[in-house]
Structure formats: C-alpha cells, structure tokens
Fold this sequence. Notes:
By secondary structure, this protein is an alpha/beta fold. Helix content is 38%, strand content 13%. It has nine helices and five strands. The protein has helices spanning 17-23, 34-37, 55-63, 84-92, 108-120, 137-149, 164-170, 181-187, 191-195; strands spanning 45-49, 71-74, 125-129, 152-158, 175-178. Helix 4 (84-92) packs parallel to helix 5 (108-120). The longest helix is centred in the middle third of the chain and has 13 residues, at 108-120. It starts with 16 loop residues before the first helix and ends with a helix.
Amino acid sequence: MRSIGLLDHINPLGESAIEVLVCGTTACSRCPATKTLRTADRPPVTVVMDRGDDVRFTRTALAAHDPSAGRIVVHPTVASHDRLLWHDILHALGADPRSCPRPGRAASDEQERAVHVALQTTAACRLTVLRAHRIGLGLWADLVHLHRTTRADPVLVHHAELPDDLAHLLRHCDHRVIDTFAGMARLHPPAAASAQ
C-alpha cells in the first residue's frame, strides 16, 4: 500500500485514506447502514470477480457492447496511471475523439466532467469496465460516484482477488458481487441476441 497522509482523500464519500488503515479488514464502525446505501429502483454497483483471469469473462462483456441498447463496455487502455480511462469511456459513449480532451494528467478533470455530462444527458445505461484490477482505488471511488450522480449502472470486472482497501471501499457503497461465469453471462447477453 502506498504511503498516505492524514488529509489524503481517497474518495467522494468523504473518507480519508488513513481511515482505510484504521478500518483494515475488521468491521468498520463508520460504515453506513446498508439500507441507507440503496439507490431506489436501480441495481447496485456490480463487481464481477474473475479471480482466475478467465478470457471468457472479457469476451462475453465485449460481445455485449451495444450503446444503442444502453450497454457500454470499456476495455481500458493499458497505462501506468488511471488517466486514460475517462477518455476510453468517452470514446465508448460515441464521443468524437477529436472533441474529447486529450489524455494526460492535466486533462483528467476535464475528461471526468465530460463523462458526467455525457452520462447525465443519455438514457440509463450499464457501464462495464474491464480490467478493473488495474485501476486505482480513487478511480474506483469515482466510478461508484457515477452511480450516485448519473443514471449509469457500473459493472466493474476485477480479474484478481480484492485487496483490503478496495473491500473497505465497497462496504461504503451499494454493491453486489458476481463471482461465476454464468452470472457474468446472464448480465452480458450478446448484442445480437438482445436485439432480437
């Protein structure tokens, strides 16, 4: 785990990173009650656990990509930081790449704002993010925040075991875990099948 300071915020929920260390894997006294986390008439944030990094999970999600049906699938660009994900989401939403803020640290906030605007002006959708084990904790929190502030229902496909800090974050949001390929396949029917 990286070194952190007392005022280093990890997410839009108002927690500071030091609370993750204090909370650890034990029950957190500051966790909100489950009923207060529920988003009425919406599915929770979905975490798909692909512990064995089974290629079928990725292929199934990609085959389900159908923006016209409200199913957006993002296979993030491999990078040493999180900054490209917002650009990838904008591209998956159909934004003209020339109009998207260019990838990079300086444009990250602008890209995130553009994603929020795009999702607030579109119909409800499911936003599946593959390779979620490669993105940082802060970006996970930002994606959870999308669920609270837009009509997007994030599905985060984590191709490894959940680390303790991410498990802690999930205790503070409305979420469900799917850990079988059958569950993944039910959540992501092929685009051609859903059009019939």
